[in-house]
Amino acid sequence: MRHRAMSITGVRRHRLLILLLPVLLLVAFLLQSDSINILKIWSPRCATTTGSNGDAVSRNSSPHRISKVSMLFGKNDLYERALETHREHNEMHGYGMKVLREQLTDGYWNKLLYILSLLVEELAKPPTRRIEWFMWVDAHVVLLNPQIPLDIFLPVQDNNFRETHFIGTRNDGDFVPSVFFIHVHPWSIKLLVKAMAVPMIDELAELGSAMDRRALSYILDETEFRDSVIYQPWHWFHESFSSNAKEGSDRRGTLLAQFPSNLKAARWKQLADCLDRLHRIEENTAIPFEDTFYLEETERFWELARDVNFMLLVTKQLQKGLTEWNEDIAAASSRLEDVLSYDLDQKQQAMEAIEDVKKLVSTIQVPQRPVKEVDKGEWIEPP
């Protein structure tokens, strides 16, 4: 198991309360109508309209109400052009877009504070009028293919995924904060508040310069939150523009291209080249969803997630049916939990975990217990 438990007691709990007070006051301030208009702008492409009864009405057949969120301070023409690439996508699918234009605080917490304020704002509305999911996109994220709907990345609303509240990606095992989905739910508020409190509640946490990213990654890995997190394949959101435009590529039609700061000085030229090429060869990137790799890969991903979840339930029921605790079943159950929380983006590992459980189940005999006969109300031994 890769659990890490963070205890918050005594002095640490007191420090957390001290930290949360200004955070909550700031959120309350942001929700005041006079200030919120200064801090964010709504794209004219709202995800929903309002019906005669005041309920949210989707403009399309999307099963989710989604809004993108980003931030951009100061003047940066390339980033403005990158954000503008989302316009057609938003209009086509009915997504809103909110962009923070003024800093809320010094340092690294603007992103998390802004998302937190939007979550509080939405949760204050009746459920039928709320945005359901926010998709965070950094300003350097370019929308390549407007034909790809965002719903394919979100869980269907059934018992398998009703406790899923965060969907992200990793690169070489490290959380990538450039693009992620966060559910409008009290769980998400608790996640962000605790992430911002990490420097106060765990002085040993090594956050480095990218404090917000590392703090969020740190909390996502905690026992309290990990079961509600799903990681998806990195290439779904982070394919390079050059491979996207290549004719005959297996991954033509990619949704996004990214140009993060770790590209250093080269990112400005690469971003400019991408935006220029996108303008010239738009017909080559706007590929119908049905003709892209997303159709098959996303369907298989969610099928695999359901299979892992089902086998996890099998191991738990099997353990209950035994008269003695079985360490092999416990280990198999633990591995499946890790797959759900960490390794769904690693298809081979997930499939191997399922096959191992199937083999284990076939070798274990569950003793038959007395069965109550309903009509007579008597206990009978099965033959």
From TrEMBL:
It comes from the Eukaryota. Belongs to the glycosyltransferase 34 family. One of its GO terms (cellular component) is Golgi membrane. InterPro entries: Glyco_trans_34, Nucleotide-diphossugar_trans. GO terms for molecular function: glycosyltransferase activity. The keyword RNA-binding does not apply. The keyword Glycosyltransferase applies. One of its GO terms (biological process) is protein N-linked glycosylation. This is Uncharacterized protein. Keywords: Glycosyltransferase, Transferase.
